């Protein structure tokens, strides 16, 4: 350890928090002309810093001390500053990463590592939030099926078990079953004309529902759709005990299940722009989504901090926009500050993941965020997307001042048409999500080109420029046979076609308001579905708390539009429910697993099961029974007790 950075809360009031940062030189050499680089996701009050100046772009902060001082051996530098925000409650609120640089005779930054200690919150310890679990049941299927009848006896699954050839609609489900049995149970089941496991097409089964009958010598699986066969397979896999007997066989309880989904759309969004998640992690995650009967993977592929999808027409989007670091076009953000960090998914990899997900009944919906959250694209294609005459002043939710596409540049429309065209061709899903969120006040206001553009189109409010851009995107997608989706802010500028699907994230009331305007809505209120929120109240909880705390029981308590009468026609405008994992602070498998599990299982039941069948104690018992599987799968979940 050569340099150390400490952060301490020294004063709190209702308007601001005052902090101290102490930088220690623990070496026997002086550091001259030094600059401190660090990451913190809050907006820091630059004018409040003592002894130097701060510049901030996103989470990346650069502090330059006054008069180029020398950091002498075994000495320290101290500065104070304020943040005009709510009080820090968690260690994750502190400095995420840091490094030093020296300005002496350097054309490029040469990062000097700095150890960052845990922020001193100046608060009393808070006991860890726990969730007592009921004893596991004999059968622990999640989500809870509509009707499950235990029978007397058991079916023995072994290497001699044969899967009978089935209707083509069942082929993907059978492939998934074979893959899971080989991976987790070391069983390689063959497919023959006659067998013991029967997948049968039945038009009597509700769409995407299924029927399972397990007898002593046969397993009968019935469905009317490919998705129904997949959901049946998910339940069948959960019935298999994890421990084999001495002959490597598994005894499955005889049971009859009739089941169907309560919500047609059951999604989970993953942010791969803030931190890049490798393919192996995505495949594992999709496998778990299928196991718990989700049917949509919403893939957040672009944002200010990274562009993750290969676009043939614009190779700069991935050669430049997929990477950030001390000497990259995109500055470092959040973590990994000292190195070139990032990655992207090639079209070959994307097609592979689409097929992998399809075999498990998962549709992948891509998200290309416009017109905000476009910094990675703008920095990659400045000749196309940058208006150097735009003097507009704004600061977005993530502290960026240069991340909004210009409505007055022809390049904006060329970019949107080209990118959405390639995305629509690549993804078979009938939808493309275009973001449309968090365009801050001030955008476009001091752009002469945008003001002229507004006058030409008789626009009175700057947000009408967003609607203009989004209507163009909608037209492009329609020509490709796709339906546009967007966050709830897409309605702010007015005149957005009601065919657009709205994702409501700020609150449930926002979703209700969109439904009343005759939009189809996906309910995704952060207060119940954002799995990047902390799961308790102790300082060592991982995550954020801008929308409150989200322990397991609160996820499970969610009942969309519960205050509306069951016969209210507004319910028909709700397509389903979606969870989300935003990844500003999630850069490892351990953090990924800790934030998702076991809350994903609670959300699965909210999405799938009839509300009258959901009972907390019963769920915790079945969850207790699922933990053995999570352990065997190597999932590093947050322990409940």
UniProtKB/TrEMBL annotation:
Keywords: Glycosidase, Hydrolase. Residues 139-260 form the Beta-hexosaminidase bacterial type N-terminal domain. It catalyses: Hydrolysis of terminal non-reducing N-acetyl-D-hexosamine residues in N-acetyl-beta-D-hexosaminides. It is an enzyme of class 3 (hydrolase). Its EC number is 3.2.1.52. SUPFAM superfamilies: (Trans)glycosidases, beta-N-acetylhexosaminidase-like domain. Residues 264-610 form the Glycoside hydrolase family 20 catalytic domain. It comes from the Bacteria. The keyword Hydrolase applies. InterPro entries: Beta_hexosaminidase_sua/sub, GH, Glyco_hydro_20_cat, Hex-like_dom2, HEX_bac_N. Belongs to the glycosyl hydrolase 20 family. This is beta-N-acetylhexosaminidase. It comes from Photobacterium sanguinicancri. The lineage of its organism: Bacteria, Pseudomonadati, Pseudomonadota, Gammaproteobacteria, Vibrionales.
